[in-house]
Design brief:
Blueprint (H helix, E strand, L loop, with lengths): L7 E4 L2 E8 L2 E10 L5 H15 L1 H9 L3 H5 L3 H16 L4 H18 L9 H15 L3 H20 L27 H22 L9 H12 L3 H5 L6 E2 L4 E4 L9 E4 L2 H10 L22 H11 L7 H12 L4 H8 L15 H24 L1
Antiparallel strand pairs: 1-2, 2-3, 4-5, 5-6
């Protein structure tokens, strides 16, 4: 029996879920803002959560489905089974991938609802693209993620005999170049964001009656370290205390997939001011998890979204890394050095991060003109 419609409620600024499964009560934050527009997505999020907990029963029931029932399976139900499969089977070792699929599926379920998977064609996907752009104002990078998630779902659905084709192959998907996020955080946006982060942290400490010395403003500290070091958020969240060398002023990134990603970062004074208090926290991690003792934090997206709302700004966490790269180039650091600090194998990728300002380009042209003038004067004098 579905609990859809009775399994979500508003708590503060967010939709929260609560339901019974396997004789236990389960509750938590859906990560969706508490607007009426998000109600359906929140209900579907909760239903998928419940279905994931009932996966053994779900698999047994699916195995008994007839061919006709498979062909009539509604998208929202299929999406729940797909997410459970992604989390527990295909991407069980890649939580970030399954989470990205889950986020995209929320908007897909909100649009396609109970429409049978087999009836969704290229025309329906074009309508979905219009819906996401006009109703939600998403950027190309988000649309690309949604269509990629749908493509994975349809390939799964073909194997489950829910449909015969993957309609995503028939629509235009924004390219990597189209999907580049080009927002460079200004100094004023940085100030507003960090002030809001500290304000929300202080309110949390006050209402939870926790000792501030044992709790650090995680998103504030992560943002500062990304702005100062250019590291990926997952690299910093998974950093161990033993990777810090205060005498040398360095932080080792050891978990990268490539040789270039495994690197040693030199800490700025501002970065040290963030890291030193974290060395006093309990456990082995710079960003220890409160909910999972002995483990580190893995994501802070909900906190980031709340801070953006409070500060009146809009950008993604990765834009802190983009901003670091742009500021480095603006400061006169050569691109190969910036690429090495960012942990890139080559130079191609970094040009997606670096966005020289008009002032930087003007200064570059002035240096170029001066160099040309000196060269000509040298020829005349000779």
């Amino acid at each position: 029996m579905s609990l859809k419609g009775r399994n979500v409620r508003v708590r503060g600024k967010w939709w929260h879920y609560q339901f019974e499964a396997n004789g236990e009560t389960h509750s938590g934050n859906t990560g969706l803002a508490a607007s009426e527009q998000n109600r359906t997505a929140a209900e579907n999020f909760a239903e998928r959560k419940r279905q994931a907990l009932l996966q053994p029963q779900l698999v047994a029931a699916t195995a008994m489905e007839t061919e006709a029932e498979r062909r009539r399976k509604p998208f929202d139900r299929a999406a729940g089974e797909f997410i459970a499969w992604a989390e527990q089977v295909e991407y069980r070792g890649k939580p970030a991938t399954s989470q990205r699929l889950k986020v995209s599926m929320a908007s897909c379920v909100a649009f396609f609802g109970a429409r049978p998977v087999a009836e969704i064609d290229a025309a329906a996907l074009e309508d979905y693209k219009v819906f996401r752009i006009q109703e939600h104002g998403v950027k190309d990078v988000t649309l690309r993620h949604d269509l990629h998630a749908l493509s994975v779902l349809f390939r799964w659905a073909i194997r489950r005999r829910l449909t015969d084709a993957n309609p995503v192959s028939q629509v235009r998907v924004p390219s990597d170049r189209d999907a580049v996020r080009e927002h460079v955080i200004s100094i004023e946006e940085e100030r507003k964001y960090l002030e809001a982060a500290l304000k929300l942290h202080a309110e949390f400490i006050k209402t939870s009656h926790l000792n501030e010395a044992t709790r650090r403003p995680n998103m504030h500290d992560l943002a500062v370290l990304m702005l100062e070091l250019g590291a990926r958020p997952e690299e910093l969240l998974a950093a161990r205390k033993e990777a810090v060398d205060l005498a040398m002023g360095t932080l080792q990134i050891t978990g990268g997939k490539t040789r270039a990603a495994r690197r040693t970062l030199n800490l700025t004074p501002r970065a040290l001011s963030i890291i030193e208090p974290r060395l006093q926290l309990e456990g082995a991690w710079l960003f220890p998890s409160d909910r999972r003792p002995g483990e580190h934090l893995t994501k802070l997206q909900v906190t980031h979204d709340r801070i953006c709302i409070e500060a009146g700004v809009s950008f993604v966490i990765y834009d802190f890394r983009h901003t670091f790269a742009t500021r480095m180039v603006a400061a006169g650091v050569d691109v190969p050095t910036v690429a090495a600090i960012l942990g890139h194998n080559g130079l191609r990728t970094i040009y997606r991060y670096v966005h020289p300002t008009a002032e930087t380009q003007r200064a570059a042209m002035e240096r170029f003109a001066a160099a040309q003038a000196r060269a000509r004067l040298k020829v005349v004098n000779e």
